[in-house]
Write a structure and sequence with these properties.
This protein has helices spanning 4-32, 35-56, 59-70, 74-100, 103-106, 111-125, 132-137, 141-162, 169-191, 206-219, 226-236, 239-260, 266-275, 279-306, 308-316, 324-349, 354-377, 383-408, 414-427, 429-440, 449-472, 476-494. The chain is mostly helical. The protein has 3 domains: 1-219, no CATH class; 238-411, no CATH class; 428-495, no CATH class. It is globular.
């Protein structure tokens, strides 16, 4: 069995690549492209995000668990893979056709938007070859790391070479779409070396449709939350608000994703433990994983909340500064989302409660729909309010998860909640530090040396504060992490 530590390192490496390169390309694109054209792109991207999940129909999350359970049986592995791949082909074809004829439902006639819409359709077709769930289930994280590095470098070079003026939005869209297609094709041909297609009867699809539908809703809950917010903003016709919302979301998602994604590497292992009846190992891994997760994600989220306006200023220049509050709100939402990930993916989903997840997600999604509709009905188009409705709805969803887990006694949540509270209290000292530094050393929201000095001082004092509290409480995770750093440093010196 592959080392979960090495898997986690490879996965973190992937996430780091997915931080560095989007920051480089995003910062460049936000500055080069016309704000209106970029708004068109983000609006079309919002609509595409609605269709993408239907192309794969929940296969990613379902397939991750299904392949993990049969990866030691070659015959069953081929069968499960074939059935899910065939289903993806059918769903992708149907979804692409619907997408092609749906343009008038979302947009008025506009030659630029029409071109963007058409080119983005390539990403939809590419979903046929979207089989990353197989690589993750087989724990091929080293391959995923090298492939991601190649694709990111290719994308970066292409953007710098071909996106040169403010109206190159179609060229930018083409680069993004072709990069997606190439990325999926590489994974497809890699997997096809070891897995073969086999015949699957139509009757074998029937038992998997319900869990796949559940996964479609569960894995794409953002369709009922942030996507719904963006869709309402698209309908207002104010494309720049869509850009504010999208850029703010992208900044937080990209940065926080290095930590939030790392927890995903434990899902195959958790499935394996439960499948073998190793309950104690499962509980220990959930508790330990959640603690390490919160150790990193909570201070990162609070830090991003403080630096929300600065982050969007540096990322998108002064023309997107109005999205600063949105960035801070998205950072706070990350903590809510992190707990949802732990409770939903690692406890409810792993234990087979897809229907319950689906039901609760729909309840929370309906609440968000009602709240967004009220804002739209009363002509309130401020994007911050739409995000607040999502945060309220997701908090409601989190409460439902907690109540159900406690009722069924799936796992004792005391350990998870204890350390969530501890790291939250430690991280809130950053707010006080920021207030004091900004009072003593105030700066204007423009990109200059004083701004970066201010940010550096706040950041360093916050890090020292967090470490100091960890040392004071003798936090075992901190000392374990410190031990790994020291050990790595010694190995580097020896080499």
């Amino acid at each position: 069995m592959k080392s979960i530590k090495l898997n986690a390192l490879a996965f973190i490496g992937i996430r780091v690549l997915n931080i560095i390169f989007p920051i480089l390309t995003g910062t460049y694109v936000a500055r080069v492209l016309d704000r209106t054209d970029y708004g068109y792109f983000n609006s079309v991207d919002t609509i595409l995000s609605f269709f993408l999940p239907f192309a794969t129909y929940g296969v990613y999350n379902y397939g991750l668990r299904a392949i993990s359970n049969v990866k030691d049986n070659k015959k069953e592995l081929n069968k499960v893979f074939s059935s899910l791949f065939y289903l993806c082909i059918a769903c992708t074809i149907i979804t692409t056709l619907v997408y092609a004829f749906s343009y008038p439902l979302f947009f008025a006639a506009n030659p630029i938007i029409q071109k963007i819409y058409l080119v983005m359709g390539v990403q939809l077709v590419a979903q046929i070859f979207s089989i990353e769930w197989v690589n993750e289930a087989l724990e091929n994280y080293s391959f995923l790391f090298y492939k991601t590095a190649f694709i990111r470098v290719l994308m970066l070079i292409s953007i710098f070479l071909f996106v040169k003026n403010e109206h190159d939005i179609v060229v930018y869209t083409l680069v993004m779409s072709l990069s997606t297609l190439i990325n999926y094709l590489i994974s497809y041909f890699w997997i096809k070396r070891d897995i073969k297609f086999v015949k699957v009867s139509l009757s074998e699809f029937k038992p998997i449709m319900l869990p796949l539908t559940a996964m479609l809703i569960f894995a794409n809950a953002n369709m009922l939350f942030t996507f719904l917010d963006r869709l309402f903003l698209v309908k207002t016709g104010i494309d720049v608000n869509v850009s504010y919302y999208t850029i703010a979301q992208r900044i937080v998602t990209v940065i926080a994703g290095v930590v939030t994604g790392a927890i995903g590497v434990s899902v195959p292992r958790l499935s394996y433990y439960l499948g073998k009846g190793k309950k104690e190992e499962y509980v220990n891994l959930v508790n330990r994983g959640s603690r390490i997760f919160n150790f990193f994600i909570i201070p990162l989220s609070i830090g991003l909340m403080i630096f929300g306006p600065q982050a969007i200023l540096v990322y998108g220049s002064e023309k997107y500064i109005d999205g600063g509050i949105l960035t801070s709100l998205f950072a706070i939402r990350t903590i809510i989302l992190a707990l949802e990930t732990i409770l939903g993916s690692q406890i409810l989903f792993i234990n087979g409660y897809e229907r319950r997840i689906t039901l609760y997600t729909v309840f929370a999604g309906i609440l968000n729909l009602i709240l967004d509709s009220l804002l739209y009905f009363y002509d309130i188009y401020t994007p911050e309010y739409y995000l607040i409705t999502t945060m309220l709805s997701e908090t409601f969803l989190l409460i439902l998860y907690v109540l159900f887990i406690n009722k069924r006694k799936l796992i004792n949540l005391r350990h998870i909640l204890k350390y969530t509270l501890r790291y939250s209290l430690f991280s809130l000292t950053f707010v006080l530090i920021s207030f004091i530094v900004n009072f003593i050393y105030p700066v204007q929201m423009v990109i200059n040396l004083p701004l970066f000095i201010n940010m550096f001082i706040i950041m360093m004092l916050s890090v020292l504060s967090y470490i100091g509290l960890l040392v004071w409480t003798k936090d075992s995770i901190f000392y374990e992490f410190l031990g790994h750093v020291i050990s790595l440093k010694k190995r580097i010196k020896k080499s």
